[in-house]
C-alpha cells in the first residue's frame, strides 16, 4: 500500500514477485485480503498524517527557529538527529499506553523533550509549537511524562560497555584442629613476624598473594586441597585478564619484584618453610 501511494506506477512491483522476493510466506490472495482490511480501517484514505509526518514538521520548525539546537551535537547533522528521533518514535508507538494520544501530540512531546536536553530556551519554542498545533497544554504535559518514562526504560535496557575489576578478599582465614592457613595482603614490602614467631604475618606486594601454611595434622589436608583448587581457579582468572589487556610484560616485571622479595626472605632465620608465590599479576 505504501508503494502504491508514494512510488510511480512503473516502480511498483508485481504482487507475485513481491511475495516471492520478500519471503513473507503469504500468497497473493492473502496479501490482497490484508490490504482490504487495512483500507477499511483507514476508510480508504492513505494520505492521513502519521506521527512520523508531524515529527518531520516539528523538527524542521525547531531547527529553523533555533539554529543553535544542534550545537551541542556537532557530530550529528539534522537528518541524523531526525533519524534518532524516528527510532524513539517507533519505540513509543509500540506502547499501548501512548496510543491514546494523537500522532501530533506524541511527536510534539518527543520534540519538546529533546529540546529540553539541548537548549535552555526550550519552553518558549514548545509553547509556540503548541499554539500552532492548537493542542491543550495539560495533555502535552501528561504525554511528555509518559514518553519520558518510556524512553528511560529504553535507555536502561541498552547493553553497557562495562569493565569489571576483580578484587580478591583482603583476608581469608581457614582454621582446623592443629594448623592455620592464612592469606595476609598488605602494601608494605618484606616479611614481618610476630614476637612469638608462632604466626608469621606475610605481606603482599602489589597484586601478588603469598600463602603461608603452618604445620598441621592430617585433618587439614582436605581443606588445603580445596584451597589449592580455588587458587588454581583464581590463577586462570588472572591469566584471562592478562590476555585480554595484553599485560604479559607487566606481569613479568611484577614477577621479578616478587622474586626479589622471596630472595630477601631467605636470610631470615625461621622454623617455617620458605614462602611460595601463588599468583602473579
TrEMBL record:
Compositionally biased intervals (Pro residues): 270-281
Source organism superkingdom: Eukaryota
Region named Disordered: 258-281
PANTHER family: CYCLINS
Protein's recorded name: Cyclin-I-like protein
Lineage of the species this protein comes from: Eukaryota, Metazoa, Chordata, Craniata, Vertebrata
Amino acid at each position: 500500500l505504501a508503494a502504491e501511494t508514494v512510488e510511480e506506477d512503473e516502480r511498483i512491483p508485481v504482487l507475485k514477485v513481491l511475495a516471492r522476493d520478500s519471503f513473507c510466506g503469504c500468497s497473493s490472495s492473502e496479501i490482497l485480503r490484508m490490504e482490504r482490511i487495512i483500507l477499511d480501517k483507514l476508510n480508504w484514505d492513505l494520505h492521513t498524517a502519521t506521527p512520523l509526518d508531524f515529527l518531520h514538521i516539528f523538527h524542521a520548525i525547531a531547527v529553523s527557529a533555533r539554529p543553535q539546537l544542534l550545537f551541542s551535537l556537532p557530530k550529528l547533522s539534522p537528518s541524523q538527529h531526525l533519524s534518532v528521533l524516528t527510532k524513539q518514535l517507533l519505540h513509543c508507538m509500540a506502547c499501548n499506553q501512548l496510543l491514546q494520544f494523537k500522532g501530533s501530540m506524541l511527536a510534539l512531546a518527543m520534540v519538546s523533550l529533546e529540546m529540553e536536553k539541548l537548549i535552555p530556551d526550550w519552553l518558549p519554542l514548545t509553547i509556540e509549537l503548541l499554539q500552532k498545533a492548537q493542542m491543550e497544554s495539560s495533555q502535552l504535559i501528561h504525554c511528555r511524562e509518559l514518553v519520558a518514562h518510556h524512553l528511560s526504560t529504553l535507555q536502561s535496557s541498552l547493553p553497557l560497555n562495562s569493565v569489571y575489576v576483580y578484587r580478591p578478599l583482603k583476608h581469608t582465614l581457614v582454621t582446623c584442629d592443629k594448623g592455620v592457613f592464612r592469606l595476609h595482603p598488605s602494601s608494605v614490602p618484606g616479611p614481618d613476624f610476630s614476637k612469638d614467631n608462632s604466626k608469621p604475618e606475610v605481606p603482599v606486594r602489589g597484586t601478588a598473594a603469598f600463602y603461608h601454611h603452618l604445620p598441621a595434622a592430617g585433618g587439614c589436608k582436605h581443606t588445603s586441597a580445596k584451597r589449592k583448587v580455588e587458587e588454581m581457579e583464581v590463577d586462570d582468572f588472572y591469566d584471562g585478564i592478562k590476555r585480554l589487556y595484553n599485560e604479559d610484560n607487566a606481569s613479568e616485571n611484577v614477577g621479578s619484584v616478587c622474586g626479589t622479595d622471596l630472595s630477601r626472605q631467605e636470610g631470615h632465620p625461621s622454623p617455617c618453610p620458605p614462602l611460595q608465590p601463588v599468583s602473579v599479576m
